[in-house]
Amino acid sequence: MLATLLTAVIDGLEGALVRVEVDVASGLPICHIVGLPDASLSEARERVRSAIRNSGFEYPARRITVNLAPAGRRKHGAAYDVAIAVGILVASGQIRTSGEPCALLGELSLGGAIQPVAGVLPMVATLARSGVRRVGVPTANLVEASLVAGIEVMPLAGLDDAARAIAGPRGRRAAAAARAPTVAVSGSPGVQAQQSMTLVEPGSCVDLSEVRGQSTARWALEVALVGGHSLLLVGPPGAGKTLLASAIPGLLPPLSDSEALEVAVVRSVAGLLDPSARCWRERPFRAPHHTSSYAALVGGGPRLAPGEVSLAHHGVLFLDELAEFDRDVLEALRQPLEEGSVVVGRAQGSVRFPAHVQLVAAMNPCRCGYLGDPDRPCRCPPGDPERYVRRISGPVLDRLDLRVEMPRVRPAALLLDPRPESSAGVAARVAEARLVGAERNGGRSNAWLSGPEVQRLCGLDGRARGRLTEIAEVRGLSARGVHRLLRVARSVADLAGRAVVDEPAILAAADLRDPAVEAEPGLAA
Ligand SMILES: Nc1ncnc2c1ncn2[C@@H]1O[C@H](COP(=O)(O)OP(=O)(O)O)[C@@H](O)[C@H]1O
Ligand SMILES: [Mg+2]
Mean pLDDT across the stretch 404-408? Predict the structure, then answer.
């Protein structure tokens, strides 16, 4: 007997429909699976056989042929396990289907439990778009699958549940009860988020009131967050660079509905979507360690998963100890910083993952960390500080819009100064200025304005124009450098509530980027 079931696989960030055909016929007891890469074949076969036996069903001692179509599509992961197992049970007459199109997703354990899989959100979205009205998903992926409108979702804990799901409405356990209350919000085509999740929970991030002194760096961070400008913090060990960056999550406004959906898809494909989807609107803040591999940062690996730069989509990528990162990894960040997306290669073609990120980086000025410190001598051998900085390529350094020094905080300032402003006040200013910018820029942040847009949207008054010309001449700025300065000045003016970019905004923006960086792609010693 022949059984046909539906399932899905992940291709980049998109789900793709896969048809599972199972034929059980008389003949030698053997199981052939076609349409899978070699390594996955035997693994799937073993999991399915054990799971069927350990779930109280019989594994037919006959000739089983499984075809996963289309054969030409690459199939990653193991989300098709459940559909293969249920197909064998249908084809061997152990369970019945209602004939309604129903899809099944999930990986099997040898004991028959259905395990969560990555990419459920886009896979269910694809199924819904293809007209499938019902899908069974692993219980742990239920909330994420329920984000998709127009398809009924059933939780699957074991093969019994999957059998009930395909048996049709009567044999099925009511799934609706397990769902969270839904609120309709709009989304990108095909995926409509039904649920409005709890807003950002107060996390474990640092509050700005804990960061003493460092007024320049605090100000630079505020401007950077308003316009989405990249920021480099340079200072000796213990100056509070990591501390300041740890306050960023508490300063970022929540994601919009459409942004939240894009971020959820990336997290889903990476298998990192919180099962309760509580962080739905939390703007990403990713801080990968400097020992992270190329695949972990940029994306790729055997599963072709998105990397940290994509997990930070619509949020902040924080690279602490920038000079310690692998040079190739930093080089690979040029593309996302310019284009807002990253291309990850593989044998047959490549996939593009979104990576619209704001880069924040921190580093010591030299290996020992004390170059330029008024109280402690730098112990690096001659020429070493330059080499240390040159580990970061010029073009990458050039893409860091703002660069500020963070000197060591004096004990007196640390102990005696009044408590600094807390995150709440700064976050409110940032959110308001971002709104003003987004409204003027058609939804984009200042850092992502093109050259012509900068000219059109960053109107200068006469004095500001004169001052900008002067700075550009003294620093020998290219058109690119002028536009960069204008974008930052636009953010300063947005923070000050000014419609026109005035002279103080130009001067403030110029102060936030060391002239030495403009003149030459390399840090000033
Ligand atoms: N500006 C500061 N205000 C308050 N505490 C600070 C400051 N700078 C450093 N510290 C304290 O020193 C610790 C180490 O600082 P850290 O941010 O790791 O320094 P860096 O990253 O610059 O080497 C912090 O966890 C904090 O307790
Ligand atoms: Mg640090």
Answer: 91
